[in-house]
Amino acid sequence: MAVSQMKPPQPASLGRAGLSGSRKTKNAVMGYLIGLGTIVVVAPLILIFGFLLIKGVGALDANFFLHTPAPEGEKGGGLANAITGSLLILSMAAALGILVGVAGGVFLAEYPRHRLMPITRMLSDVLSGIPAIVMGLVVYALVVRPMGHFSALAGGIALGLLMVPIVVRTTEEVLKLVPLSVREAGLALGLPQWKVILSIVLPAAGSGIITGVLLALSRVAGEAAPLLFTAFGSNLVNFNPLNPTSALPLEIFKGATSAYDENQRLAQAGALLLITLIFITSMLARFANRPRR
Amino acid sequence: MNETVLRRINRPRLSSKGDGVFRRVVVGLSMVIALTFVLSIVLLGVQSWPAIRQFGLGFLSTNVWNPPKNEFGALSLMIGTLLTSLLALIISVPLAIASALFVAEYAPKWLANPVGYLVELLAAVPSVVYGLWALFALKPLFQQFQTWLFLSNPGLAAQCTDLFNAGKTSLPCFFMPQVLVGQGFLLAVTILAIMILPFTASVARDVIRLVPADQREAMYALGATKWEVISLAILPYARAGILGGVILALGRALGETLAVAMVIGNTPELLKNIWAPTATMASMIANEFGDAREGLHRASVVGLGLTLFFVSVVVNLVARTLIVRMTPKGL
Q: Within a 13 Å sphere around the CA of A218, how many CA atoms are in the beta-carbon half?
């Protein structure tokens, strides 16, 4: 009875139960701003890719892949030296990056009680933030000076050392995702620990490690700064690791800052090729890491 | 016969020997990481030693870069590095957070995944490609804008030109170009802001996704609007993690080399206006190391590298600490 005697709510307070105008407006405005901000973030990627497509696709002909750069100011020529050079340098970088990176990841994930583990993890994290150009200076002093000349090997070492922290981090993370029970099952069968790691844990984490390696490769494939003082560049197609060698990002840098239209045209085509390869690599990385059902 | 049986029985001992070898190989290879760190400091230190001995800490606090006279001080370069990086952060952080909020809170799944992927691709674009795009696509636009600015304020332009020629500047002149070439400080800041966007954006997105659903639902249950949930429940919770991402982006910006070197003009001078050419530590290394044959010049350039090394170590440690502290255990 008492309930029915209660006064019904006033119409005015009923109105107040909804959202006030200013709260509604603020909500809508911020929503639009967030959408707008996202468009501004994504726009450069589309603009860059579109720009390179328009400018570069015409120059991606057979000449581009088969010839070396023409002498300054002359027409024709391609970036065969840079394409082969990138392949040479990156394969050396990958060898170093995978060997040390996967070993580092195994160390951090499988030997957590080792006394060197915490410091190694910290140093690996710190190295991942070292600017690439500083790594170039280090490898210059480490390899180029003792050898007396620039070389693809020095470039490979510089890029490999830049790959290491990325591979270490992803390897450690995916190894930790492998359940402990899998390791225990292996050990219970009487397998030694090294065999459990090599033939059970690493294969189980394989796709994740491949993702890490591909990501690291796509990151260093575009680096030109550390190659300036290590691989240096060359106008010849070179497969000798001890000679100076060019790479795609190096040629893009030189061409873009060159005064000659022809060099600029090659740089734009090179940039289109490089960015396409990098996008494909990171897509492959994503594909390798797709959860399987 | 008997011996082989004995050997089989003794097999467990064999496996532990393999373990020892395997562990030594793994630890040995991992030590390359520590070795790289130590070697970096030693080699950079040895190469820059002549400059350290000659200038001491004054290297960091004097503003002179004169190779013919063998006088080197990195002040204008450090200011160039700090100003470009901080300004780029100020531009990019709100945008990065907006895109992270969009992906994590607003977008339906069919849109969130591609947008998140595009932001990741932005991080994969090489530095030289950003630099090339800035030179060929942005620079002409900047040049047009500068020309318009110059021509639409003829009085101020004349006044500023006099000031600049006298080596001075004033507040309104700070926004007035001196030479209408398009490239310089502001173009470097713009391209840097775009380049560091994905670093803040992806960390911010991850920490925003880690905010517990209870937190949001409690706020909605109180009748909050979406923006109120974001600003009062989500962002405060994710604050430390986002800050970690911002500092990570700062580390990137401080060391970013070629894109900046291609558009900043590489003049080791203090800024007179926002369009003027200046230089950063990294751009100076890229530009001068090859030419620097003289002992002191080369040592000074490597000294820039050593400074950059220590700055990035500190910045990274701070960022990692923040992110680790923020990430809840077990998630």
A: 24
Q: Does A47 sit within 8 Å of B137, measured CB to CB?
A: yes
Q: How far is CA A154 from CA A50, A136, A241, B191, B277, in A?
A: 34, 9, 9, 29, 33
Question: B88-115, pLDDT tens digit by residue?
Answer: 999 999 999 999 999 999 999 899 988 9
Which residues of A fall within a CB distance of 8 Å from B30? 100, 103-104, 107-108, 116, 120
Helix (H, G, I), strand (E, B) or coil at B64: strand
pLDDT at position B1: 47
pLDDT tens across B6-28, in order? 555 545 444 567 888 999 999 99
Mean residue pLDDT of chain B comes to: 89
Distance CA B282, CA B287 (A): 9
Both tokens assigned to B218: 């409690």
Q: Which fold has domain B55-326?
A: MetI-like fold (1.10.3720)
- Asked whether the beta carbons of B233 and B216 are under 8 A apart, the reply is yes
Q: How far apart are CA A167 and CA B38, in angstroms?
A: 20
Chain B residues within an 8 Å CB radius of A24: 225
Q: Do A120 and B132 touch (CB under 8 A)?
A: no
pLDDT at res. A223 = 94
Share of residues in chain B with pLDDT > 90 (%):
60
Count of A-B CB contacts under 8 Å: 266
Q: How remote is the C-alpha of B33 from its chain's centroid?
A: 22
Per-residue pLDDT at A158 exceeds 70: yes
- Superfamily assignment of A62-288 in CATH? MetI-like (1.10.3720.10)
Q: Is the pLDDT of residue B328 over 80?
A: no
In chain A, where the domains are located: 62-288
pLDDT(A16) > 80: no
pLDDT (0 to 100) of residue B8: 54
Interface probe for B, chosen from A134, A157, A161, A252 (most Cβ of B below 10 Å), is A134
CA angle B187, B78, A159 (to 5 degrees): 75
Residue B299's alpha-carbon distances to A101, B48, B282, B305, in angstroms, are: 32, 4, 15, 10
